[in-house]
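Sequence in, structure out. Go.
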Amino acid sequence: MLSLSVFRKQLEQLVQFPEKNTYLLAVSGGADSMVMAYLFNALKPSGCTFQVAHVNYKLRGEDSEQDRQLAEKFCAENGIPFHLHEVSGRDRKPDHSIQLWARELRYDFFKQVQKKENLKFLVTAHHLNDQLETFIINLSKAAGINGLSGIPADSNHILRPLLPFSKEEIYTFAKEHQIGYREDLSNKKNDYLRNKIRNEVVPKLMETNDHFLDNFGKSISYLNQARDFIQRQIGEIENRITLSGPSCRILSKEQLGRESDFVKFEILKKYGFDQEQEIHKIFSAGNGSSFYSNEYRLLVEQHHLTLIRRQEETSTADEEIMLIENFDFSENRMAMNLENITGIEEINKSFSWDFDARKLRFPLQLRRAGTGDKFYPAGFSGKKKISKFFRDEKIAILARPKIWVLSDAENSVLGILPYRQDRRYMRDENTVNILTIFNISKDEV
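Output:
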């Protein structure tokens, strides 16, 4: 049953040291939110810091006004900062989708208050009955395990500590502690899907089993555990099939293609590709095909699926970083650690290149590959265009513009980081002055 000690334990499961955090409570004046405000107020002597926010939509005339008065009076009597938003013509109430409009309006208001007052968590009074209604709604939409797992108790700094408790428990607690609250009579109308489920479907389900709601709560807990386990497994699969690439995500097309449709969907939906029919198109598309989500471009290649943020898909041909201005020839050896160079993406491969400093024309710089660039790759005979080297090494197309080329004052290519050094400038048995350029990857340590 709901009690202060049980509530505090539930809050501790969501936040470590709850009394050391700050909260904004969304209080409507209904039994759920008034009980929540009472419980937080009871924790105030132990150091709990919170404020209250209320939105008066003015949709129910005098009833809306009395909701506001109740919430404001409770805060005034208990010394709780109270924040009010009263809907006006500026809020542009729509003719349709009132519920969606109201939700967006109140959450925008809550965020403003949180930012202004520096309050870390928003707390809402969703309870187990809300959880059941949401489950049924999502069941009708084929929402998958994430939808069937219901309302999360903690997501994006929004806490819902009353989720394990039924509406009946909340009413009982309010009666025992003489907590005033207001009933929203519009909830009795079946003009919205949630209300229809609340008033017609849920009562029928409750009649089937005296412990229906308790058993449902356990089922939701099991579903949440199953979801968390599945997500960990999905994460491990994604890590296994991800190939390193600067500034973009490169997935092995072959390895991901061997996974189930469920795994493909779960991985790609993180990048905005959340339509099942689109997933099938991606794997049947020809090389060079592109797909777009709001944030990402996905390029299909023979061996890879390359994902890059669309805002980063700009030309990088003119980028240049000065690396070494000169070599002190009074010294036999000089070393440059690229890990200490700011402005370059992480190079996720360790390498160490020794150059004959007297063969180089200083200064040396890092730049992007240019059209027609050629070099003499170590370990091979002859020369090769960098564009062909990229193809031979199966470097993803979207990764190529982000790769750094080491060049000298005459723009000769000394190496392609971190893949291959140019053999013409390498240290040999006659070298006196050695320049070492190296990188130690954190991923390989």
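Check: The chain has a mean pLDDT of 89. The chain is about 35% helix and 20% strand.
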